[in-house]
Amino acid sequence: MPGVDEKDREILRILRKEGRITLTELGKRVNLSPASVKNRVEKLEKLGAIRGYSAVVNPTFLGEYVSVFLELKLAIDDHTVDPILRKVAGMENVEAVYRRSGERQILVKAHFQDTDEVKAFAGKLKRLFGRNLERVEATLVIDTFKESWIDLERKTR
């Protein structure tokens, strides 16, 4: 990525695992002054390398016991669907919205209290997309064995 050097990647690796680390401690770990680290972090934020800061919360502690992947097959083009997908992404239970290749172009990951909420959410999607929604298929997550973010330490080509 242009404008990002190995020191920046080192900062990103540490922030990815320890988002609450202080600039002083981060500086010690990467052998830079807190001011230099602050400048680099601000640069990474402006570049979009750091999208934001948040806690990774277990949905069950929010009373959301059902995790679901919803696959949507649409009868509209990408340009038309973008504003609708932004609305879907802003819905309360939605964790992620992906556009993908294949017959069912959209994948939505969401969390709900129960299957009745899943059905109600599917109904909202049908109303939102109207006749342009050809099919909704929900897959319930039975158990999660691994859920993590990208490994920034893997070797790049």
Automatic annotation (TrEMBL):
It comes from the Archaea. The lineage of its organism: Archaea, Methanobacteriati, Methanobacteriota, Thermococci, Thermococcales. This is AsnC family transcriptional regulator. Residues 4-65 form the HTH asnC-type domain. PROSITE patterns: HTH_ASNC_1, HTH_ASNC_2. InterPro entries: ArsR-like_HTH, AsnC-type_HTH_dom, Dimeric_a/b-barrel, Tscrpt_reg_AsnC-like, Tscrpt_reg_AsnC/Lrp_C, Tscrpt_reg_HTH_AsnC-type_CS, WH-like_DNA-bd_sf, WH_DNA-bd_sf. It comes from Thermococcus pacificus. GO terms for biological process: response to amino acid. One of its GO terms (molecular function) is sequence-specific DNA binding. CDD domains: HTH_ARSR. Keywords: DNA-binding, Transcription, Transcription regulation. GO terms for cellular component: cytosol.
